[in-house]
Design a protein that fits this description.
The chain is built from nine helices and 13 strands. It folds into two domains: about 120 residues; about 170 residues, Molybdenum Cofactor Biosythetic Enzyme, Chain A (3-Layer(aba) Sandwich), CATH 3.40.980.10. By secondary structure, the chain is an alpha/beta fold.
Amino acid sequence: MVMNLFQKTEVVIENIGLKEANLTEVAAVVAETLLLDKMKVAVIDVGDNHVTLDILQHNVDPKKFMGKEREILKNLKKIQGVEVKKDAQINSRGILGTIGLEENFAREVLLNSEKIFWGISKKIKKRVIVFSTGFEINQGMIEDTNAPFIQRKMEENGYRVSIGGTIEDDEELIAGKFRRALNEGYGLIITTGGTGAEKKDQTIESLKKVDPRAATPSVLNFKKGEGRHHKSSVCIGVGFLEHAIIIALPGPHDEVRMCLEKLPELLEEEEIDKNDLAEKLAIIIRGKFNRSFPH
């Protein structure tokens, strides 16, 4: 079972002394004992009587490290320059707290934690934040009709929705908003606008920055370089950022309305496949152009 650490990622080893010890080796030993990738554990603080490490991943299998305190301390003793004192112990918060528990007790705690975890995960999946992009909206030239509409439709389907405001057409800025929304506990991030073929449209690029394997099917194609078409197509996007789903919709309000008629139903799937979800949304929007421009 994989569980999210919810930002409680620090492992604090108390009553331990260092003298010209290799911190990379310390981190590697802890990683190996916890059955983690060595690149996912780093020493972030050293004091007179403690060492703090950070687990550089958010999702872990707690069964791999519960009750591992004695084994970690035993393995650290083997490192040159590391003094593990008699009263050494490991203190951590959240799921990582099971490292310092006796294994039988840790299993009991884990069972209760799983119930709490699933409860939290269920709530997070129902927390939505909506962002709008575009120069015209940022400058107040046009009214943002998309965000209030999405809020109303999603709330009608049992979601708790926040409007995150408008974002400038900037790849780094939009990607930063995605990461911040994740850290603030949102399970669904919806954007409108910035998915077009012009150079200023940066939402799809931002999505791929946080999820290089994001699904980005086209809904309308152009000849690249012709007129204002810096790119060859208008796309929609669906990607994952850890436990959060990011859905990037085009800006036209009628297209947003079309997608929102089906989106709540599509999100009720037991397992969300981003490629499948993206393609289903793309088909909905393509239908508009097929009707408008019949072959």
